[in-house]
Amino acid sequence: MPEVNVEINGRRYRMACEDGQQQHLIGLAERFNRQVEDLKGVVGEIGDGRLTVMAGIAVLDALSDSERRIAELERHVTDLTDAGEALSNDLERMEERFASKLGEAARKLEAVATAIDETGVQSGQQS
């Protein structure tokens, strides 16, 4: 299992990770270190333990917000999917009604054409 060295708050840590995940782990450590450094800028030197706990809580707070937003977006996707299915069903019913009306109109036109033909045949016989 590969190992990488990361630095958090000026201290180096050796960490193991899955093969191919080295750069990802380094990137995560850099982001966490920025969080720690940002907190140090706000609260000053308060000790490694407290600083790390505060940074961890801040990261989890952001994660919690992201999870809430993802759940909200999933609900929106479900609502939009349901609305799309309802529209599709409405369209299908409208197409069926249109086809029925079109068939009805065609039958009426055929009846009119037949009546005209019969009238023409009868007029031709009387001449």
Automatic annotation (TrEMBL):
Classification via InterPro entries: Cell_div_ZapA-like, Cell_div_ZapA-like_sf, Cell_div_ZapA_N
Keywords recorded for this protein, A-Z: Cell cycle, Cell division, Coiled coil, Cytoplasm, Septation
Keyword Hydrolase attributed: no
Chief place of localization: cytoplasm
Subcellular location(s) per record: Cytoplasm
Coiled-coil residue spans: 63-97
Gene Ontology CC entries for this record: cell division site; cell septum; cytosol
GO terms (BP aspect): division septum assembly; FtsZ-dependent cytokinesis; septin ring assembly
SUPFAM superfamilies attached to this UniProt entry: Cell division protein ZapA-like
Role summary: Activator of cell division through the inhibition of FtsZ GTPase activity, therefore promoting FtsZ assembly into bundles of protofilaments necessary for the formation of the division Z ring. It is recruited early at mid-cell but it is not essential for cell division.
Assembly, per entry: Homodimer. Interacts with FtsZ.
PANTHER family hit by this protein: CELL DIVISION PROTEIN ZAPA
Name this protein carries in UniProt: Cell division protein ZapA
